[in-house]
């Protein structure tokens, strides 16, 4: 998979996680901000970490020649990443070698194996299923067993990383070279300890059959080589293969697909691992061959490539599509879980408010009104969601508002408010009646000298206050001219008003006068007692919103409400 495609997948995953955090995670704004920063940091780290090995590889080694020499995208033969010892001898300074069976690519060091694979996959993403690893061993050039074990462990770790990068199992091949005369390749495949002889990359035969072929002289030479091959098989089983399956490595065991042996005329190193092992088994020292033959200059293990399985698996593009589908599925499941949680919280809160409302006694009016206000807030929230649309965090077909709204409204409509307090009926002040004979001479409208006490008593009973007007009405009996009686009654009412204004601090706006003459008798006019009762002056309070308002100077005419008593002077 290319670096660009990996970065795109990482960014897509981080974007989906960020959307989940903002829209569906049931956490506060502070936690969402912290989560967003963590996601941003993860995206930035992934962006720079992807391709880091490739950048380091290019910084230490010139890869331009290799990238220019790579086969085309349509190359479908095995691509073998070759690392280990003797690469100068194998590649002769070239970055890669193409043979009819595959393409061998030189890896400068074992630690660069995964980085080289990442670079190749970024340039040739379609090669993901064609990659394999080849470890080249020269036992006669090694004199330190721990170093050899470390090389095998590093090879094992790098192949596990390649599997993670490519998404395919990277097959492992082992190619071993010993000093000797030119001979065919000898190979052992996994699960089959029988050694086969490859005279060409297309044909092989069992070692026993190969020993029986040829002339007597050839059979003697082949027998000597077969002894060395059997010794090499035992050395591999005791020294190399156990290092591939040890449990002290932070990666899965490595099971090589095949191991091959070739004899080449390369002088061995003194006191090397191979000679020490042979000496320990036989006390003999192997003979060194210094001759060379045609074809030994470049000896790649082409026969081993025929054992590699055919190309299988998905292309990087299909794998990327698969990853996107998986991410979307995880995103939907997480979004549904978040929406379900948020809706449960909403339902729990409203149900709790409804239960609290129902638990309060109906006659507990203050608490009931407070609970009702919360129910109305919940109803307003649901109505806003219905009107403006359900928020995304409550969506995904899980919103319970349509089910909870009817019972909520039923509770609100069933509320019985507290009964209004009974208001005391404001009784109109009783009318104060004054006997005209006590105040006036017959036929006169001037107050008599002894009328002060009667008027003071009336003033105590009738007091001006805002919103009430003091109505003073004059009345006469039916004796005499009706028109004169009307004027006389009005004049007497005005005389009483003028005395009250003069005597008290009540404003003139608090008074109104009216003369009724003999039109409103309270007794019969046919008897002296009845006529005496009809000759009167009445004081009463009449409601009038604009009457008796305080003056601009701040004079307060508001007094206590009048006593509800009736005084009648005779």
From TrEMBL:
Positions of the UniProt region annotated as Disordered: 551-570
Keyword RNA-binding attributed: no
Domain OmpA-like: from-to ranges: 427-545
Gene3D superfamilies in the cross-refs: OmpA-like domain
PROSITE patterns: OMPA_2 (PS51123)
Main location: membrane
A Pfam cross-reference name: OmpA
Subcellular location: Cell outer membrane
Keywords: Membrane, Transmembrane, Transmembrane helix
Residue spans crossing the bilayer: 7-25, 31-50, 320-341
Gene Ontology CC: one annotated term: cell outer membrane
InterPro entries for this protein: Bact_OuterMem_StrucFunc, OMP_bac, OmpA-like, OmpA-like_sf
This protein's record includes keyword Membrane: yes
Regions of compositional bias (Polar residues) in chain numbering: 552-564
Protein name: Outer membrane protein OmpA-like peptidoglycan-associated protein
Organism: Biostraticola tofi
């Amino acid at each position: 998979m290319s670096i660009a495609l990996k970065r795109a997948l990482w960014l897509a995953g981080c974007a989906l996680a960020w959307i989940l955090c903002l829209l569906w995670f049931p956490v506060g704004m502070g936690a969402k901000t912290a989560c967003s920063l963590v996601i941003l940091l993860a995206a930035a780290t992934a962006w720079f970490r992807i391709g880091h090995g490739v950048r380091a590889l290019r910084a230490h080694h010139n890869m331009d020649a290799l990238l220019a020499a790579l086969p085309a995208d349509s190359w479908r033969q095995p691509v073998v990443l070759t690392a280990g010892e003797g690469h100068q001898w194998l590649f002769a300074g070239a970055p890669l070698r193409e043979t009819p069976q595959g393409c061998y690519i030189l890896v400068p060091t074992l630690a660069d194996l995964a980085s080289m694979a990442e670079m190749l996959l970024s340039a040739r993403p379609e090669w993901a299923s064609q990659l394999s690893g080849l470890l080249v061993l020269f036992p006669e050039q090694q004199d330190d067993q721990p170093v050899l074990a470390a090389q095998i462990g590093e090879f094992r770790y790098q192949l596990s990383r390649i599997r993670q990068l490519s998404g395919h199992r990277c097959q492992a091949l082992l190619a071993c070279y010993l000093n000797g005369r030119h001979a065919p390749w000898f190979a052992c495949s996994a699960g089959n300890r029988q050694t086969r002889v490859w005279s060409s990359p297309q044909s092989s035969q069992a070692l026993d059959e190969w020993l029986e072929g040829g002339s007597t002289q050839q059979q003697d030479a082949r027998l000597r080589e077969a002894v060395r091959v059997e010794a090499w098989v035992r050395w591999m089983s005791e020294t190399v293969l156990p290092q591939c399956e040890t449990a002290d490595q932070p990666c899965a065991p490595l099971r090589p697909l095949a191991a091959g042996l070739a004899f080449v005329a390369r002088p061995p190193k003194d006191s090397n691992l191979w000679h020490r092992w042979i000496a320990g088994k036989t006390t003999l020292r192997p003979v060194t061959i210094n001759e060379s033959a045609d074809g030994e200059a470049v000896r790649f293990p082409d026969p081993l490539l025929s054992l590699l399985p055919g190309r299988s698996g998905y292309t990087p593009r299909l794998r990327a599509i698969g990853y996107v589908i998986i991410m979307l599925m995880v995103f939907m499941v997480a979004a549904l879980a978040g929406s379900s949680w948020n809706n449960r919280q909403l339902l729990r809160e409203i149900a709790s408010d409804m239960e609290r409302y129902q638990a309060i006694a109906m006659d507990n009016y203050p608490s009931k009104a407070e609970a009702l206000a919360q129910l109305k807030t919940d109803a307003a929230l649901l109505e806003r969601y219905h009107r403006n649309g359900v928020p995304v965090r409550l969506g995904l077909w899980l919103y319970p508002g349509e089910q909870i709204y009817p019972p909520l409204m039923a509770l609100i409509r069933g509320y019985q408010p507290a009964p209004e307090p009974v208001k005391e009926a404001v009784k109109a002040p009783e009318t104060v009646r004054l006997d005209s004979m006590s105040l006036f001479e017959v036929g006169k409208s001037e107050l008599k000298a002894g009328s002060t006490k009667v008027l003071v008593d009336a003033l105590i009973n009738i007091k001006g206050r805002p919103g009430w007007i003091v109505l003073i009405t004059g009345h006469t009996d039916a004796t005499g001219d009706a028109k004169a009686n009307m004027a006389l009654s009005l004049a007497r009412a005005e005389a009483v008003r003028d005395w009250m204004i003069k005597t008290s601090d009540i404003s003139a706006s608090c008074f109104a006068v009216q003369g009724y003459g003999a039109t409103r008798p309270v007794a019969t006019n046919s008897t002296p007692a009845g006529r005496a009762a009809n000759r009167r002056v009445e004081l009463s309070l009449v409601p009038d919103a604009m009457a008796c308002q305080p003056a601009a100077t701040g004079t307060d005419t508001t007094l206590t409400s009048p006593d509800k008593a009736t005084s009648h002077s005779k």
